[in-house]
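Researcher: I'd like a structural prediction for the single chain below. Treat it as a standalone chain; there are no partners to consider.
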Amino acid sequence: MQRVRNSDLITETIPIRTYLLTIHVPFQPIAPRTVRLASDWARSLRLLRDSFGGQFHRFIVAAPAIPVDADWAEQKPVEFSCAAEGFEFVRLCQAGLRTRRFWPQAPAVYRRCRTLAAEATVVHTGMSDLFRPIGFLGFLAAYRAGVPTVFVEDNDVIAESDQMNADRHRWRWWFYSRMRSRLTRWVVARADLSLLKGPLLNARFSRFAKNARDFHDTSHSEVWVMPDAEVENKVDALPQSCTLRCVSVGRLISRKGLDESFCAIAAARRLGVPAELDVIGQGPDRTRLETMVRKLELGPFVKFLGGREYGKALIDELSQYHLMLFTSRFEETPRALFDAVAAAVPIAGYATAYVRSVIESESCGVLAPIGDAAGLAAQIRRLWDDRRMLIGLTRNAAGAGRRHAAERWYQRRAEWVNQIIASSGGQRSLPVGGEL
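Model: Treating it as a single chain, here is the predicted structure.
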């Protein structure tokens, strides 16, 4: 703290600490100090704020804005009071712009990022989309201003692009993914802190990074994890269960692989397992998926429950299930893996790199080769026949839920961020009593 004498007036000053996020995740302004956000994003922002324990005076989110009269295609949004929550939202551009409409606005987006970065203590960015590189423009503005940077890469978009577009615009996507890889290498070599999620991203980029850390992006609270006594009640009831209750959580889009979950359930039933599947989520593929359920004659055994707001109620709802299915063929890093274990629900999934790393490190599920629905059905049958194995996986899942609670991961991240700020030295100041 500094003291400045001006004639007979002594003004005390305190350091201003501003956390700036430049990010592609949109917000929807609905009143001067109120926005709508996806419920899981609202949860993430609160966790970020709380992890610093009041060390930052301002949290600014610079992002695309959804028009006030537009519908949300994703999960049901929640209202977020900027004043009550301690956040400011800055519109960078309209959400959902096509590439040819974004780039004429890119210089203005960069100028806004540069203005905001000039007043920031740290800038948090990512790299989601080269066609509309909002996160990269934010990083570039912060890097040129000499502000400490946090770069977050939580999905292997390069492997994902290769997989999803192998037969469609192949050369275009090959070029895109290689350019993205080179740009990410450039960023991690300069970012003060790079958070890389999962084994593939760490293998791909950590050797180029100035300061890389592995992390998991969890959102469940430690107090949401099923208590030990309830876990024991759950496993005590497993030997008497007449139905294997399975669940899937996520957007209803083709890349999530729900088709293969249905095939696995159908195959498991043919093997004599009384398996049922509830689907939590919404999306454009619901009609197609419902048609597939009817064709597989699974109508009585598969239910579509619609979307849910993210929170403790979702974890409590998940806790009634015995198994969660993940059958995407693509390299993803689903947060729902940890929502499952928080609810003491083991996982049955395809052996993509991230899913395999979580299941093997935590002993909380079973794996099948990617695309092998029959193999997954055989694993489901194995669990049904060996209840002791299912009981062990259920207990392990609850333990993993506690170890990976969001508070623990966000606290680690806060410590890493404070280290890079301390290393950078400077902080801006504001008179005590001044408006933050």
